[in-house]
Amino acid sequence: MPLDFIRGDITKLAVDAIVDAANNSLLGGGGVDGAIHRAAGSGLLEECRKLNGCETGHAKLTKGYKLPAKHVIHTVGPIWYGGNQNEPELLRSCYEECLKIAAENDFGSIAFPLISAGAYGYPKDEALRIAVDTCSEFLTEHDMEITIVIFDRASFDIGKKFYDIQAFIDDNYVDENGLDNVRRGTFFGAAPEKKESRKAVPRLLSALGRDKRDLKSGSAFELPEECCDSIGETLDERLSVIDESFSEMLLRKIDERGITDAECYKKANIDRKLFSKIRSNRDYHPKKNTAVAFAIALELDISETRELLMKAGFALSHSNRFDIIIEYFIERGDYRIYEINEALFKFDQVLLGS
């Protein structure tokens, strides 16, 4: 079967499975991940909590809940570090693992976003090339409808140079329904560049209860109520799919590492009373140096460290000496906290731990 390309909203596709470009926790985040969780509703989050996360390059299956798609395949793409940390291999593995799950479950159709091409910084042209190559190779031996869904203008501009991409949304839709803020809005249909029918067209329109006559260049129509209801209009619905907190991720990582609480907080140079506050309060917000100390104690890689810090409301920046020093040690696999503190002290930075 041919590989289909569309510019559209993946949360609207009535296929056997859509792919979620998730983070390691599988508990929701930004971009397409957050959009899928909001559209699917709280049932998806509850099932994801039972999966115990997912490693980069791997994939796990859940039901689709309120989505038009029957299932969601969650995969964790690599963060782009210049291509020197096996990013191409890990990204290719994401597509391979998702397709393997689809084949094992006899799915007839699957839709992918451009994995890692958003917040994870993977170059869009390379991300698209790997997606096409991997899916095309799979189709030489399997019979399945595969759709690559492009959302943003930059990816669309790159993709249309090489592929026939059916456009069902325009820049107005992207501006109003950015992946970090999917909500009820207007679905814009742009006339395809070519007239021939493609299987992705009826699948997308079927999810919206429309047909091709509704697609006129520049035209707009309101989403049907049944689609709007599944996206999560109210504040209560949004809050029902709240992401994993700092303390929840910390405790999960301690369990995954197979160490005790005491081993963790002692290695992090953290006081027991402070750790007790974190454990007993889901919404506890630590200082940045405390959060980093736990990342060092758990020997998290750089992507996991960034995720843990994000849960506490922090980030790593190359304009900050503290952050540069921390990133330097983590990237070299050096988790000796006292050596790290020596370097921080040398450059007059706050130390890790209590």
> Level of helix content?
40-55%
Task: Tell me the total number of β-strands.
Answer: 9
Oligomer: single chain
Q: Average pLDDT value?
A: 80
Structural class: alpha/beta
Low-confidence stretches: 179-232
Strand line-up across the major sheet: 3-4-2-5-6-1-7
Shape: globular
* Radius of gyration, in angstroms, nearest whole number: 22 Å
User: In what range is the share of β-strand residues?
Assistant: 5-15%
Could you please describe the fold and organization of this structure?
With 354 residues, the protein is of the alpha/beta class. It contains 16 helices and 9 strands. It has a 7-stranded mixed sheet, sandwiched between helices. The protein has a two-stranded antiparallel sheet with strand order 8-9. Strand 5 (109-112), helix 4 and strand 6 form a beta-alpha-beta unit. Helix 10 (246-257) packs antiparallel against helix 14. Mean pLDDT is 80; it is low at 179-232.
Topology:
Blueprint: E1 3-7, E2 17-22, H1 31-40, H2 42-49, E3 59-63, E4 71-76, H3 87-104, E5 109-112, H4 124-139, E6 145-150, H5 153-159, E7 166-167, H6 171-176, E8 186-189, H7 200-208, E9 219-222, H8 225-229, H9 235-239, H10 246-257, H11 261-267, H12 272-280, H13 288-297, H14 302-311, H15 321-331, H16 337-346
Parallel strand pairs: 1-6, 1-7, 2-4, 2-5, 5-6
Antiparallel strand pairs: 3-4, 8-9
Helix pairs in contact: 3-4, 10-14, 11-13, 13-14
